[in-house]
Please model this.
Amino acid sequence: MSTQGLAFTGKWHVQNKTWTAVDAYTQEHVHPPTTSNYNVLLDALRNSRDKGLPDIATAPTVAKMYALQCKARGVRHALEFGTLGGYTSIWLATVNPGMQVTSLEINAHHKAVAQENLENAGVADRVTIRLGPALDVLPQLASEIESGAKPRLGFVYIDADKQNNWTYLDRVIALCEPGAVIYVDNIVRGGSLVDPERQDERTFGARQVVENAGKDPRVDCVVMQFVGEKGYDGMLMAVVR
Ligand SMILES: C[S@@+](CC[C@H](N)C(=O)[O-])C[C@H]1O[C@@H](n2cnc3c(N)ncnc32)[C@H](O)[C@@H]1O
Model:
């Protein structure tokens, strides 16, 4: 599926007709409208837009790739930092009917809209949104995982306030099972990662997580660049040893 006119319009993001056309062509074939979660995913984007949420949900190809990684690994519990309208949570939960998803969100309006979207998608019983700054909410989740009340994490998606990328990765590793996969989104951002002119907090957050994760003996890492309907960006992938 493509976002069908609901695509991201953020200012750092370069539209490219070929990249967009390739996404549209491939998604038409690999995620056609007959797919069971097709309509609920579009509903979530539409409802989020109508309720005034920013147009910054993860690209469909990327969110589906995350959902398929969870399926390939048989993940029991996935964690997302930054829920927004629940778009990626819906992908994760609909593709993985046996998996729990926990998602952390600071904004009460985003959480409320996401809750509507999760209910519409029929996955509200397996996706729990915890409201608050992720660093405040994480200790409670950690104690539930440490006590065995919740399974250890097999998949983590870091997509919240970019200046905390490294802190989130650093803290979450201890809650993961060996072999768990952690992704940090928006690392490349049109090449700003290596642009010496870019000295903003988000870019520092991207550089810090790349530099620190690369030295960390608890994980093996790679950074992948990609293009698509949402422009040129990339993510860091870390696999827990
Ligand atoms: C890029 S959006 C997330 C998109 C979402 N992962 C998706 O795929 O649709 C970032 C979200 O992180 C939330 N956020 C920002 N700072 C946060 C923090 N300190 N703790 C938790 N959530 C935060 C924002 O309110 C926003 O909803």
Q: What stands out?
A: The longest strand covers residues 219-228.
